[in-house]
Amino acid sequence: MVGQHCVKAATTLLRLCDPLAQSPQESLLRLSVARSDLPTPTSQLEIYNEYQQKVATADLGYEREMVAIFYDGRHHGREEQWTYDLQVTAILTDMGWQVVRVATGMTQGIVIRHIRAALQRSRRHLGY
What we know:
Shape: globular
Helix content: 40-55%
Distance between the termini: 47 Å
Strand content: 15-25%
CATH class: Alpha Beta
CATH topology: Endonuclease, Chain A
């Protein structure tokens, strides 16, 4: 592809792609985190309880620090989804996880501060 227009830009963009992302909003969230000074999170982090039963799949997360990040799109406003999300948050919190929920309208600064604070709380709690 030598000499082709925009090949360098395309290859740069391809490095930013994540095949595990399930929505454009999740991708924007991941890219916001990538542009910050936060460590790189894991996409589609599966979280299991002590019986090895899957409790949730976080859109992004930090397994070692036990921080789960969820992007809540419009469908999360439906009553059954909202109730499910509350149950998942309660279970994860009881398991010691810091849960970060991000929604449309939250500024990048607020989101990054919220994630950073969750990481700091978790690190203090876990002793590192």
